[in-house]
Amino acid sequence: MPEHIVHILPEQVASQIAAGEVVERPASAVKELIENSLDAGARSVSVEILGGGSALIAVADDGSGMTRADAVLSLRRHATSKIRSAADLSAIRTLGFRGEALASIASVSHLRMQTRRAVDEHGVEVAAEAGNIEDTRTCAMAAGTRIEVRQLFFNTPARLKFLKTLATEQGAIAEAFQRIALANHHIAFCLNADGRTIFDLPRANSVLERFRQVFGPKIASRMLAFDFDRPGIRAQGLAATSQESFATGRMIFTFVNGRSVRDRTLIRAIEQAYQTLIPRGRHPAALLFVDMRHEDVDVNVHPMKTEVRFRNGGAVFEVVYHALRDRLADQTQNAPVAASGDTSSAASEAPAPSTDDAATEVVTTASMGGDAHAGQAAKAPGESAPNPRGDAPLRLVPDAPNPAMFQRPLSLAYDRDARGGGAAAAHPPAPIPMYSRLRVIGQIFAGYIALETEEGLLLIDQHAAHERVTFEKLRRELRDGGIRTQAMLAPVSVELNPARASQVHGALSELCAMGFDVEPFGPTTLLLKGAPAVFGPEGGAKLLTDMIESMGDGGFRGGGEAAFENWLKQLACHGSVRVGRVLELAEIHSLLAELDRTEFKTNCPHGRPVHIQFGRAQIERMFRR
Fold first, then answer.
1. Which of 12, 32, 457, 485 fits 101 for a cystine, CB–CB 3.0-4.6 Å?
2. pLDDT at position 10, please?
3. The three-state (H, E, C) secondary structure of 16-83, written as one string
4. Rounded to 5 degrees, what angle do the CA atoms 206, 208, 214 make?
5. H/E element, 585
6. CA distances for 525 relative to 274, 434, 546, angstroms
């Protein structure tokens, strides 16, 4: 054994370890550099990348700039202008503070910094390689700072090989850029990738205007401004109407004191505020800004500063929940437009419920079982109901009938014979006949079909049933040569999120294999000419948008046939009739007939039960007969 086994790491190795914590991928470096620009008081920030950020990241701003001494010192580990003592960590007021980002980036790249203060006649240029300063010189430039990062991770090949495709890394950079731009509407931003402009955002007068710049006028017109104040906590921002929902939570953006964060408390409060308002499994669009005392939130819990810890998470949840819930109670567009940093509060003028009342309302909502439609009553004839696919009728293409099949029912755990717990096992219930041969009692809660059997009552989840029917059709068509496409009467343009456009363009072949006849129509637009025939063309654009929202960072590739079947499940789920859709009697009979001709009909593709049976004896026992 050697005499000494504990030793001090070389400075370069320590810097590379720190880089691994702070700079996970090119998007992390972009985020850190932009945040430094904002902390320097920039009013305009431009970003240029090449090769998904691995070849080049260049961030230029018109901020305060630095002296030669500060520029050189900024590349050393733990050097910062943001904090002075440990006491400052209890109330962080800047976006960056750890004193590691710039030095960490420099340690794994070729870095060149040009900076100049407005009061200085000339700027200074500093060049560094792998964290070592190679050269300093005078340069001519406007006031501000420009940092070029080339060949990121060139000296850490293990990290370099774990980077994803160029399109994926570019998408991650665009999403990080997008979040920062949404939080700083009063600043101009520009992002160029490989010579193409992704974002060009002039200064905006409000959060809504910036949201419109990023996502377009269509969705911006459906956003509601909200503003809710409580002592020490304020929640404001934009929330989509209940008529707008998405397949994933990608359109939920949360910020605490201007910092973009991922926090489960905030996400849960937003999602719960929309319970009973949007279909189950769908997600809202929301732009939430929480402002609170800096000492009441700890942002020093993650190297990349994306997570926070609240001193009183329950109070934060309550404020966010009521901010959205109260606004969604009256979905009119007459509320003041929220602006991050604005201290006026229209919502605070109205009297707010007491803390106890607010807590009771939250608990009551949570106790509804998490079902987004648990509170909906059955619709009477003539009443309208939410229809995720517009006014299009339930489309079920008849196939050749199969021979009659019988399956045993799913029984509930408490469904036991009254004379003894083991009697039911000794005398199992009779097999369920074909669904289409049972008497239809009706539809309840706009989501479940009630059938009468000889043994009792059968409830069918209409979404799960239609999802299984649709999935099996899609899988059969795929195995027979390809999913059939039905042409649309006229092509429809589909706008893409600029941050994900390159990823979507890289997945066009997979979308075509799923039955979408789609082609590029500009850098951020697709032209949809046809949709999967099993659904019909009416809701093709909505279905395509949902599938794009569900697409992972790596597109639809990877995992072979099993992975592709998972995307078929998503396609079947998004295209199937949902809870909340009132069905005509003819549609119910058509669905039951289709279900009887489908394999594995007792469960949806995700494994949830299609039906649950309540035995007659069980029902009679409930009434003590």
1. 32
2. 61
3. HHHHHHHCCCHHHHHHHHHHHHHHCCCCEEEEEEEHHHCCEEEEEECCCCCCHHHHHHCCCCCCCCCC
4. 110
5. helix 585-596
6. 30, 46, 15
The whole-angstrom separation of Cα 294 and Cα 232 is 10
Rounded (10°) CA dihedral 140, 144, 150, 154: 120
pLDDT value, residue 345: 35
- Cα–Cα distance, 192 to 587 (Å, whole number): 51
- Any bridge partners for residue 460, and if so which? 449, 611
For residue 552, what are its two tokens?
């992972």
List the Cα angle 230/236/241 in 5-degree steps.
125
- Whether residue 615 contacts residue 477, with contact meaning beta carbons closer than 8 Å, is answered with no
- Interval 354-390: pLDDT, tens: 333 333 333 333 333 333 333 333 334 333 333 333 3
Q: CA 111, CA 244: separation in Å to the nearest integer?
A: 45
End-to-end Cα distance, the chain: 82
Cα 19-24-29 angle, rounded to 5 deg: 75
Beta carbons within 10 angstroms of residue 495's beta carbon: 17
What's the pTM value of the predicted model, to 2 decimals? 0.70
Residue 389's nearest CA partner among 226, 543, 207 is 543
Please report which residue ranges of 165-278 form alpha helices under DSSP H. 166-183, 207-215, 217-220, 264-273
- Dihedral class, residue 530 (left if φ above 0, else alpha if ψ from -120 to 50, else beta): beta
Rounded distance, CA 268 to CA 254, Å?
11
- Comparing C-alpha atoms, which of 201, 214, 268, 274 is closest to residue 46? 201
- pLDDT of 522 reads 87
Helix (H) or strand (E) holding 115: strand 110-116
Query: CA 539, CA 508: separation in Å to the nearest integer?
Result: 19
Distance CA 160, CA 164 (A): 9
Helix or strand holding residue 493 (H, E)? strand 485-495
Encoded tokens for 588: 């119910």
- Say which residues have a Cβ less than 8 Å from residue 305's Cβ, sequence separation at least 6: 95, 96, 98, 259, 299
pLDDT, tens digit, 9 for 90 and up, residues 525-581: 999 999 999 888 788 898 999 888 888 776 666 555 556 777 888 889 888 888 888
- Token pair in block for residue 584: 């005509």
Collapse the DSSP code of 169 into the 3-class scheme (helix H, G, I; strand E, B; otherwise coil) and give the result: helix
Q: Tell me which residue has tokens 């850490």.
A: 156
Q: What CA–CA distances, in Å, run from 68 to 333, 420, 533? A: 52, 87, 66
The helix (H) or strand (E) run that includes residue 150 is strand 144-150
272, two tokens: 């719960």
| pLDDT the model gives residue 320 | 96
Task: Report the chain (625 residues): mean pLDDT per 10 consecutive residues.
Answer: 62 55 85 92 97 96 93 78 50 52 89 96 95 93 96 88 91 95 96 95 95 93 93 94 88 92 91 84 93 81 66 92 90 54 37 34 32 35 34 37 35 35 41 80 94 91 93 87 88 90 88 90 92 86 88 65 74 87 93 89 83 89 86
| Residue 11 pLDDT | 60
H or E stretch at 146: strand 144-150
CA–CA gap between residue 229 and residue 49 (Å, rounded): 40
Q: What residues contact 512, with CB distance under 8 A and at least 6 apart?
A: 518
Helical H segments across 75-232, by residue range = 101-107, 157-160, 166-183, 207-215, 217-220
